[in-house]
Amino acid sequence: MRWTLYVDLDAYYVSCELRERPELVGRPVIVGPPPEAGPSRGVVLSASYEARKFGVHSAQPAMQAARLCPTAVWIRPDHEKYGRVAGEVRRLLARFSGHVVPLSIDEAALSIDAESVEAVRAVAEQVQTALRTDLALPASIGVAATRVVAKIATDRAKPAGIVVVPPGEEAAFLAPLPVRAIPGVGPKTDELFRAAGVTTIGELAARRATDLARRLGPSAKYWVRLARGEGTDPEEEESGPRSRSTDRTFPADVARWEEIEGAVREMAEDLARGLEKEELRYGTVGVAFRWADFTRSQRSRSLGAAAEGGAPLEAAAARLAHELWEAELSGRRRPIRTVSVRAERLSARTLRQVSLDDFPPPDVGPEAQ
Ligand SMILES: [Mg+2]
């Protein structure tokens, strides 16, 4: 039977850095703008599990993290490195499956054929061991018949664990978990579930989709089916990586177009380099501004055919940014706090080449190690 192995690298950016600085293993490490570089309005990108014990987490303001964990070692983010390592991970995973779908820079879903729970668990252990020994990257792995249940299992496996959900046991596995454990259920949806009297996935399974749809919209049907272990939309299962983005918070709010354009072009170039390393093409480009008053505006555009390289991304991002900026000039004229550039509708650029050229000869494959 066919399984999905959902691989999620633990504290990915930190792990990429520890490969080069093994003396820091076991210490609180934070990837983000170092506080000694001066007061910053940036955020934590990733924190080691030792730093998390102090309450540090990703997306937290760097200043707050520095207060919570004064002994942490800070490392400046190196996105080019993270993209390069993601490419190494993809080539490693391709040794185990001809069908690897990268879902974010540190997550991928693998299709694996195996006859039993024991057999698929053994494959998951091999993948985990190969990531640790060949690439020095700790990973958590969830295994199930569908991608979404495998993803939920992965979250339960963190850090560095393996959780297998046998077919037929999905509903029992999910029942005690909070609805927040479902990918795509954020604080807002969680609130709506609470208002409807649903806090666990088990409670969700007992409800009728039509009753919940009034509050929760058409997704209610999908969630109830998932909660009952009834499988999911095959299209969702097949879909590839969703997006990559990069953002920059300016040291002080910016009101000059030249400065904004320079930042957008630089970020687009950075993002394109990362995609190049990951061997991904993109079909849609988006730009978002967070204004000084913390409200947000965004705009995105499809490029038609999938593009690769820096030029189309940079041109589209600069154009979108200019449109947003012009619209603002005719109205409220707020300065900008944070800029984000995003690439969406990603597809593997050289999946064929990866599987043919980079496949190791049989004598050094995983079986021989
Ligand atoms: Mg991760």
Question: Characteristics of this structure?
Answer:
369 residues, alpha+beta, Alpha-Beta Plaits, DNA polymerase, domain 1, Dna Ligase, domain 1, 3 domains, 5-stranded mixed β-sheet, 5-stranded antiparallel β-sheet, 13 strands, 42% helix, disordered C terminus, binds magnesium ion
Report on the architecture of this protein.
There is one protein chain. By secondary structure, the protein is an alpha+beta fold. The chain has helices spanning 12-18, 49-52, 62-68, 79-94, 117-135, 147-157, 170-174, 187-195, 201-205, 209-216, 219-227, 234-238, 257-278, 310-329, 351-357, and strands at residues 2-9, 29-31, 46-47, 73-75, 100-104, 107-113, 139-144, 162-164, 243-254, 280-291, 296-307, 336-344, 347-348. The chain folds into 3 domains: 1-168, Alpha-Beta Plaits; 172-228, DNA polymerase, domain 1 (Orthogonal Bundle), CATH 1.10.150; 243-345, Dna Ligase, domain 1 (2-Layer Sandwich), CATH 3.30.1490. 42% of the residues lie in helices and 23% in strands. The strands form 3 sheets. Strands 5-6-1-7-8 form a 5-stranded mixed β-sheet. Strands 9, 10, 11, 12 and 13 form a 5-stranded antiparallel β-sheet that branches. Strands 3-2-4 form a 3-stranded mixed β-sheet. A hairpin with a 2-residue loop joins strand 5 and strand 6 (107-113). Helix 10 (209-216) packs across helix 11. The protein starts with a strand and ends in a 12-residue tail after the last helix. Mean pLDDT is 88; it is low at 234-238 and 351-369. The structure holds magnesium ion. Magnesium ion is lined by residues 8-10, 12, 106. Magnesium ion (MG) is lined by residues 8-10, 12, 106.
